Amino acid sequence: MLAAGLSYREAGPADGPVALLLHGYPQSSYMWEGVMPAVAGAEWRAIAPDFAGYGDSEPDPPGTWERHMDSVERFRQELGIERCMPVMHDWGGLIGLRWACEHPGALHGLVVSSTGFFHDGKWHGMAKALREPGTGEQMVGALDRATFGHVLGQSFARIDDTAIDEYWKAYADETRRRGQLEMYRSGDFSKLEKYDLARLDVPVLLVWGESDEFAPLAGAHRFERELSDTELVAIEGAGHFVWDDAPAECAAALTGFLDRVRGSAARSS
């Protein structure tokens, strides 16, 4: 399916409250395959777009943070989604939380996973390399599927060839690879100084892998301190790619949270 130029997956009742699933890097909507049936079973409508240049969505240059954020709003408007529950992982969190701050009336709540949203944040080593002119071009230009699969295998507790093929789509051509650099190079944390998540005043679920090496669990605890209505589920044995590593545990946490807020969400849909 396609809306506002973005390919997307969907499951669940067409009239149910919407869970908007926003994937991380270098993933796609495929990362949500293990949890979408559970979301649908909880009587929510699960909608998972591929960001431009990822999965089955065509690139839409430039691939900047702002461009992706704007695409979320275009997508919401085209599908006629009045309110939703953003479920966000990694870069999906940076994109989705910034979108949420600019559209507070469109929220039932927030599900935040393995990301940050702090103006004093620091990029990890791989991200720093992607942001560096010349070094980033060399990194994305030299990568082939076999090496890509090997690198992912170092960070995923479990990954198969299908997942590798789906995530490799982000490297399918030069425009897609360049879009990755545009996204990271637009990712200045100082841009977050004007946002205050606490003002959203909505329930928040935090889903984290206990062994996350890219967005350590300390970030989840900071969200807990700064937001008033939070629930943290830290999943033992899972790393950064927690939804791929532990789909059953993540689905249980997510659907439990959706059940908690479903009554008020349904009344306001």
Could you characterize the architecture of this molecule?
This protein has 269 residues and is α/β, with parallel strands linked by helices. The chain has a single domain (2-268), classed as Alpha/Beta hydrolase fold, catalytic domain (Rossmann fold). The protein has eleven helices and eight strands. Helix 3 (91-102) links the parallel strand 5 (84-89) and strand 6. The longest helix has 22 residues, at 247-268. The radius of gyration is 17 Å and the shape is globular. The protein starts with a strand and ends with a helix.
**How would you state the average pLDDT, rounded?**
95
Strand content: 5-15%
The overall strand count is 8
CATH superfamily: Alpha/Beta hydrolase fold, catalytic domain
Binned, the helix content reads 40-55%
Secondary-structure map:
Layout lengths: L1 E2 L2 E6 L6 E5 L13 H6 L3 E5 L15 H15 L4 E6 L1 H12 L7 E4 L11 H7 L3 H8 L2 H11 L5 H8 L5 H12 L18 E6 L7 H10 L3 E6 L6 H4 L1 H22 L1
Parallel strand pairs: 3-4, 3-5, 5-6, 6-7, 7-8
Antiparallel strand pairs: 1-2, 2-4
Task: Give a brief description.
The chain is of the alpha/beta class and 269 residues long. It has eleven helices and eight strands. The chain has an eight-stranded mixed beta sheet, sandwiched between helices.
